Amino acid sequence: MLILFFAQLCFGQEKEISKSFLIDRWKVDKTIKEGDTEITVYRRSRTLKIGNELRFLSTGEYRITFNSGRRIGRRCGNEIRTEVVNGYYRFNSQEQSVTLKSYNTDPIVNWGLVWIDENSFGVKKAKDNITYN
């Protein structure tokens, strides 16, 4: 079943992703590992309590928020610990890829994108590539 899904992601892309498609909030749905390749599937998200959220803004900036769900302190334990990575992105429509450059971390990350449906896309990454998920 996983191999069939992986093959569909690699070869079944009929529609190209546009920059306007990416502008939204995205949550990691699942990661599929096959050989030397990983595909991380992102789904549109409206709320995020625990987990990672990727947000592409219309200004060309992006924000990745890591919500650990760990409570801080014993008495005022209502706070969720959050980390944020921000930067700018460049979308390449011909290659169907996005390049992320962070303001607060060193690496530039290149992602190959795969359209799944109107509410989800996949990111193809070699296992040696730096990931934020």
Describe this structure in words.
The two termini are 23 Å apart. Strand 5 (80-92) and strand 6 (97-102) form a beta hairpin. This protein has an eight-stranded antiparallel β-barrel. It is built from two helices and eight strands, in the order H-H-E-E-E-E-E-E-E-E. The chain has 133 residues and is mainly beta. The protein is globular, with a radius of gyration of 16 Å. It has helices spanning 2-11, 19-22; strands at 24-34, 37-44, 51-56, 61-71, 80-92, 97-102, 108-117, 120-126.
SSE inventory with pairings:
Elements: H1 2-11, H2 19-22, E1 24-34, E2 37-44, E3 51-56, E4 61-71, E5 80-92, E6 97-102, E7 108-117, E8 120-126
Antiparallel strand pairs: 1-2, 1-3, 2-8, 3-4, 4-5, 5-6, 6-7, 7-8
Strand content: over 45%
Number of strands: 8
Structural class computed from helices and strand pairing: mainly beta
Give start-end ranges of low-pLDDT stretches.
Answer: 129-133
Question: What is the number of helices?
Answer: 2
- Mean of residue pLDDT? 77
Order of helices and strands: HHEEEEEEEE
Helix amount: 10-25%
Note the overall shape. globular
Q: Compute the gyration radius: what is it? A: 16 Å
Please describe the biggest sheet, giving its number of strands, its sense, and whether it closes into a barrel. Answer: 8 strands, antiparallel, barrel
For the record, give the distance between the C-alpha atoms at the N and C termini, rounded to a whole number: 23 Å
Please give the order of strands in the largest beta sheet.
1-2-8-7-6-5-4-3
